[in-house]
Amino acid sequence: MTHNELIATLPKAELHVHIEGTFEPELMFEIARRNQVDIPYTNVDDIRAAYNFHNLQSFLDIYYAGAAVLLHERDFYDLTRAYLLRCRKDNVTHTEIFFDPQTHTERGVAFETVINGIDRACRDAAQEWGISSRLIMCFLRHLSEESAFETLDRALPFHDKIIGVGLDSSEVGHPPSKFERVFAKAREHGFLAVAHAGEEGPPQYVYEALDLLKVARIDHGVRSEEDDALMQRLIDLQMPLTVCPLSNLKLSVVNHLSAHNLHRMLQRGVLVTVNSDDPAYFGGYVNQNFIELAEALDLSNEDIRMLCKNSFKASFISDAEKEAWYRRIDEIH
Ligand code: HPA
Ligand code: ZN
User: Fold this and answer.
1) Where does this protein hold substrate (predicted)?
2) Is 196 assigned a ligand-binding role in the annotation?
3) How many domains does the chain have?
4) How far does the centroid of ligand 2 lie from the alpha carbon of residue 153, in Å?
5) Tens of pLDDT, residues 209-226
6) pLDDT score at 95
7) CATH of the domain at 104
8) Mind listing the pLDDT tens digit for each residue in 109-135?
9) Fewer Cβ within 10 Å of end Cβ, the chain: N or C?
């Protein structure tokens, strides 16, 4: 089997995708029109042309502007359903989806509107297509600790629909330590914890995510490689890193995919996974990330198989479910 056939055929989990980052220009236009919200673009090509980011902040400015057309439960449903349809195409059989409540509640959209739209699309996809999912709500780290506490309180009535909390948005200058107390409270309530760290920020932020936020996974984490002791710790703990190659390329975390450290980390024994992050903005869903990475880093079929197994291993499904996916992967040749 060629690389691309194997990538297309293997079941996989996605563990790092922001639902607001799956907002394709076509749907953005349709929802803007439906809601009679003005957007500063005259057509879909205009929107795509605006996507010339050079770092995280230049991306985030456009990403938050795009999300501002989402107002009603139906909008969140349509957004999530479109992403899950892409999962079906890419053989993503399980997905753990981030959403940013504050991006919406700060605009006056109710928490319940957001969660109900996303959750209903997930339940429909489970029933119609057999795709399982979990939801992780992220605190925006450029906002205050107080705003994060408020968001946690708003989430409590919907705890049954949310498996964990995460931390995203502008990394540098907003270390994990800023959210130590709110993560402690979230964990007391039984939420699992993950956090973006070591994307643009230094290895120190990865240490803080582990030691202060007590995360079960690190999102991105690619800058951990700058610190040997940290690398050894990630290997010893088998702490998953949810790596996003095309995102790293678009946001200039790496200058070329061929310079990406994912393969090196995999060979050293780090539990790395491949994910799309914000696929509508970065030029590819999960399989495209696999395809371009395999080409740039000359990955073997065994590497690809291992990365798909890792995606389930690092997920929040049960051990029995993980074993069943490993067997499915072993059966495919
Ligand atoms: N990093 C930080 N914040 C984000 C990202 C990311 O990759 N995507 C969406 N919000
Ligand atoms: Zn991300």
Assistant:
1) 278
2) yes
3) 1
4) 23
5) 999 999 999 999 999 999
6) 99
7) 3.20.20.140
8) 999 999 999 999 999 999 999 999 999
9) C
Which residues fall inside 5 Å of ion ligand 2, going by CB? 277
Protein residues whose CB sits closer than 6 Å to any atom of ligand 1 = 18, 21, 56, 168-169, 196, 199, 247, 277-278
pLDDT at 333: 86
Please answer whether residues 224 and 198 qualify as being in contact, where contact means their C-beta atoms are separated by less than 8 angstroms. yes
Active site residue 199: yes
Is 45 annotated in some ligand binding site? no
Q: What is the domain extent for residue 74?
A: 12-140
Residue 32 neighbours by CB distance under 10 Å: 19
Q: Give the pLDDT confidence of 18-42 residue by residue, as tens digits.
A: 999 999 999 999 999 999 999 989 9
- Looking at residue 174, what is its pLDDT? 98
37 part of a folded domain: yes
Collapse the DSSP code of 90 into the 3-class scheme (helix H, G, I; strand E, B; otherwise coil) and give the result: coil
Nearest ligand (C-alpha, residue 21)? 1
Token duo for residue 87? 């999962």
**DSSP per-residue letters across 30-55:** HHHHHHT---S-SSHHHHHHT---SS
Domain assignment present for residue 87? The answer is yes
Scored b (16 or more CB within 10 A) or e, 54-81 reads eebeebbeebbebbbbbbebebbbbbbb
Could you tell me if residue 244 is inside a domain? no
| Nearest ligand by distance to the CA of 60 | 1
Angle 203-211/228-237 helices, nearest 10 degrees? 40
